[in-house]
Specification:
The protein is α+β, with helices and mostly antiparallel strands. It folds into four domains: 1-17 and 215-338, 2-Layer Sandwich (Creatine Kinase, Chain A, domain 2); 31-177, Ubiquitin-like (UB roll) (Roll), CATH 3.10.20; 182-214 and 339-578, no CATH class; 594-726, Four Helix Bundle (Hemerythrin (Met), subunit A). The strands form four sheets. Strands 1, 2, 5, 6, 7 and 8 form a six-stranded mixed sheet that branches. Strands 13-9-15-18-17-16 form a six-stranded mixed sheet. A four-stranded antiparallel sheet has the order 11-12-10-14. It starts with a helix and ends with a helix.
Length: 728
Amino acid sequence: MSTLRFKAIEETFNRKSLNIEEPGRRSSVFGSNVFNESVMKQYLTKEAYNNVMDAVKTGAKINRTVADHISAGMKEWAINKGVTHYTHWFQPLTGATAEKHDAFFETIGEGLAIEKFGGGSLVQQEPDASSFPNGGIRNTFEARGYTAWDPTSPAFIWGTTLCIPTVFVSYTGEALDYKTPLLRALQAVDQAATDVAKYFDKNVTKVNATLGWEQEYFLIDSALAATRPDIQLAGRTLLGHSPAKGQQLDDHYFGSIPSRVLAYMRDLEIECMRLGIPVKTRHNEVAPNQFELAPIFEEANLAVDHNSLIMDVMNKVAERHHFVVLMHEKPFAGINGSGKHNNWSLGTDTGVNLLSPGKTPMKNLQFLTFFINTIKAVYENEELLRASIASASNDHRLGANEAPPAIISVFIGSQLTAVLDELEKVTSGKLSPQEKTDLKLNVVGKIPEILLDNTDRNRTSPFAFTGNKFEFRAVGSTANCANPMTVLNAIMAKQLKEFKAEVDKLIKDKKMKKDDAIFNVLREYIKQSKKIRFEGDGYGEAWEKEAAKRGLSNNKTTPEALKVQVSKKAIKLYGDLGVMNKIEIEARHEIELEEYTMRVQIEGRVLGDIARNHVIPTAIRYQNILIKNVTGLKSIYGDNYEKHAKEQLELIESVSTHIAVINSKVNAMIEARKVANKIEDIQKKAESYCNEVKPHFDEIRYHCDKLELLVDNELWPLTKYRELLYTR
């Protein structure tokens, strides 16, 4: 293994940056492999085009006859671009994307063949889905799942395959993917937000949730990654001593982008342009070999699809550059992990961002309405929001003094805090003309002027307002954005529905004017949700104590965090909105717990294997060298040898101590796994892996890392952190 390590390092010395040729202006390349509106106008009949646009804008159904016309146009376009296969591209609950390719090619007898792609193939398929998580809905013996076309997300070409974004449902109609509940949540928030927006503009007919994600990742040379079984099987390093130089100097973040990496980024961006993914920003991140890319914000469903797609594209492009992309939230101990900030907002079909302050008191009242309702929604459902970003990998990152804590809080900045403090003082009931004027002109009307710095933010906050959007900073880098977006849009839909009901009641029962009613309800919301707002340092122990006093949850582990998913409150929330039924909720809960258990189980097995089959034998080999040295000294110096072999003897003892602890802890871990594996209850099983199996990891790692510092570098089998992080 040590030989493999040095061969890999040697291989990296010969790496050269690939020469990337720009195919043309980015603007001209953008969307060239996407079946978008402009392409549809060329390849579809007017009837078919209008049908698709109606489906996109209003959710109207596409009949089979029209589907045949659409599929014919789509096939012609794809074949003209060299496509040979098509697939329904979907996002099952495995966390990755899935596809099953079928050829356009079909025989017609007499030795002849044609390219065929009918409306039925476009609209629906039945993939063999027995291997996907069943979650109590489906079993292997009834493994029927259907994929159904989602016209709101355009088809695209990747390689020589036409990819058709779809939902994935069971034969009984339950959602088996991330997309289906998201689409339902987006529909719910559209209806609720449109109803509220009409208070301020009667012309609003639709509200879209928007999402701008930021993808952080590590790039590791593929030869070096191949020498690490933990990276290959677990996506992170399970052991490895911190290098002398890590991220202390911030010289990576503020340094120039390495040439090999820049070539990779350019190559990736060109592929993104072709796929219609509007990537705009690229830069180094804080940790060595850590980077980030981010697009311009888009409609939430499309943005989620683009993020899921780009994670696949990133890996495939990396192969050309001899890189491996690590998206694990904490691939290396002791340095920054990776997140995926979700920047969320609501926009009307009239072109207004509902979370952006306006230039008039009325526009600012609209802004405050949606702003305060968001804070209230987060306050009422903070545990559910925390559950949406829970995973085995994200547990390592949250609260690690580099990412937001597991406590959900909202940061809005001092300027908006002052505005809410003023609104909190609003008189109960009907406002006098003077009060209303003072309020609108002196408080609400001054918002644009006082928002001097729209980037005002707290890096330790999991949910921060950043001028015209909320940034959900706690989302993990491997996460499917659909999960947090489903929850966020669902809780917002519920909150806005309740807000409208309260305002309408005051207008009807108390004969209040609209503005009076809105101010009165917002005043109460400010008071009720005050506990969720926090402007200080989220990393400190003081905040944990303060949060506990406020009654905020602090669910540090995934098994703990996921419990709220199956609460009566959550089931009612999703049920009332039509986002998910009880069966779907319980299935997802079971799947996520099962995935957590399996990931910890895999990591435990890999760590045990490396510790026993790589670390201990290497340590013994080094110990034998020391023993041979001591024996030689004894033969030369006789009884006086200890004077000359003192350090060697101490090293031998140290190595023996570490070997003994590693072996005993691996045994203890295996026994803990055996106990956990016998537990039938999925919640208790996950808790057992979390509380009884996982704690052994750090103990085993500690002693393995100590041996890394003791054992001869020439013998050590695993590529070290300094090599993984600084070989570019």
